Amino acid sequence: MAHLPKYFCVIIVVLLTLLAQAAHAGTKPDFKQIKGAALTALLTDKTVVSEYKDSAGGIKDFRFTEHHFKDGTTDYIELGHMAEKGLWNIIGGDKVCYKYPGNKVFTGTYCFFVYKIEDCYYNYHRRAMGLNGPRNQDWWTSRFIIKGEGGSCDAAVG
Fold first, then answer.
1. Domain range spanning residue 128?
2. What digits encode the pLDDT tens for the residues 136-155?
3. Which of 41, 50, 120, 124 meets the CB 3.0–4.6 Å disulfide criterion with 153?
4. First CA to last CA across the chain, in angstroms?
C-alpha cells in the first residue's frame, strides 16, 4: 500500500471494516444452541408459550402454547382453544420434531433447531440453517419462553 494514494488506503480500510461488520450482521450476544440432554430437559413436562414469525418479519396475530408430555405427546393450543394433539421427539440430538397425526392439513414432520438468546428460545427450520448454525439469526420460525419460568422475548429481538 506504500505506492497507493493515502485516501485510497483509507477507503480500503473502511471497506474491510464494513465487510467484517456485515459478516456479523444479525449476530446477537450469548446465542447458544440447545441440544442433547439439555434440549430434552428443556421441553419434557413443560409448556412453551410461543409465537410465530410471519413472512414479512413481524409477529403473526396468534400465539400458541404446546405442552410436551414425558410420553412424547403434546397438546397444541392456539388462542386458548385446543387445536391439536401431537407427538414430539428429539432427532439427531440437535432438533425437536413434531407430528400431528389427526390433522389433515399438517401431515408432515416439522423439525426445528433451538437456540437461546437471553431468556428466549428461537426455533429455526432446516432451510434457515447453514453449516455453522442459522445463516441469519433473524430467520427464526417461532420463538418461545417456558411457562412459569419467566422471561421475555422482547429484548432479544432487534
1. 28-156
2. 988 999 999 999 998 888 75
3. 120
4. 39
